[in-house]
Amino acid sequence: MRGLDVPELAEDFTADPVELFFDLAFVFAFSQLVAHLIHHPTWTGAAEAWLLFAMLWMAWSTFTWSANAVSGNARSVRIIFLIATAATLPAAGGVTTAYEGGGAVFAISVSIILSMALAIQLWAFETGTAERVSAIRYARPNLVAMVLWIGGGFATDEARLVLWLLGLGSILYGTIRARRGTWIIRIGHFAERHGLILIVALGEVVVAIGIGIIESLTESGSLSSAVIVALIAAGLFAGLLWWAYFDRLQPGLEWRGEQLDGQQRGWFAVDVYTYLHALIVSGVIISAAALEEILLHPTDPIPLAFRVMLAGGLLMFLLGTVACVGRAFRVVIPERIVASVVVVALVAIGGSWSGVALLAVLDGVLFAVLITEHVRVERSRSQNAPVGTEPAAEPS
Fold it and tell me: In terms of domains, do 258 and 340 share one?
């Protein structure tokens, strides 16, 4: 592991194929989180699922920070990624049993992933450099977290939850403490990696659509008109979420990060990508669980628990994007704030609506919001652009 290649600070790069391969294991993990939510549609079940997601997220995020510092196409780095990918599979498989006897497998696997990410950071930088000092300072609370997580894996019930929460708190403390350190931040790579993991989460919506098709074909050998409408509405829902993030938000955040230097860029990466993207990605996963229920019973009223999941997941996504733009540009997206209020109102009054009807109305709300937002921003850019120049690429 000696002699890891650390590219020049100003050099950015795209994600290496091994990073994409690593993400494939999280497809399985996210699908298991959806399964946990479907089988435990309660506040307790949702809290349990989010805790497991947070543990997985911090392991994935730490790997992203590590791969951001070193060259991903180095063979030594690729080997570590492959080991971590292998460790992710039992972690993903242990999601649905983490609270029912499988906690040790989940906790040990996640700890292995996290330790591999920390190893890259510690081996990449030479002794005495500011980056290595920062990596050591960040590794210490992570080591405490791994001990607590593994201990919690062998504990039961309340003790397990307490230990896992303490471990998560130790890592979050490490991220706050690390803000004062010196890090290599390649914003283009950060933007790409977080966009890719969001696509993995959106893939759970596609899986929900596929399950609806399979169930309908298994029961009747054909697709009823209600199922077809529900599939179209679910597809539109996924596409609108994609558009809400990738059309303007992702390039805007990347542009803003590139304008910052030194510690300011590090703070930006922690706040926008490590923290706020956890809200965005988990919101999509929660929504996917509700969509699966809708697609399996499109003409029935949605049970309250799944209506709350649909609204809650959508709120997390919308408000997460609002918070990202607020952190980056110190502005508020009024359309998405209004949409959040409308979503809550629709869920409150739509208890007797069929699943497909509620989903179609939500699609209409999202579409109207994105069109209104687009018109406002384009008008603002045109009015503010100097004569003879193109409007700036960043959001207004």
Answer: yes
What is the domain extent for residue 90?
Answer: 17-178
Integer CA distances (angstroms), 314 to 121, 137, 307, in order: 35, 36, 11
Q: pLDDT for 271-296, tens place per residue?
A: 999 999 999 999 999 999 999 888 88
In angstroms, the Cα distances linking 396 to 1, 200, 264, 377 are 45, 28, 21, 6
**CA dist., res. 20 & res. 235, Å (int):** 24
Predicted confidence (pLDDT) at residue 178 exceeds the cutoff of 50: yes
| DSSP letter (8 states) at residue 299 | T
Q: Which residue has the tokens 């007797």?
A: 352
Which tokens hold the place of 185? 């931040």
Does 119 share its domain with 71? yes
d(CA 296, CA 323): 33
pLDDT tens sequence across 30-58:
999 999 999 999 999 999 999 999 999 99
- The answer to whether residues 169 and 274 belong to one domain is no
Distance CA 55, CA 164 (A): 8
Q: What is the pLDDT of residue 388?
A: 45
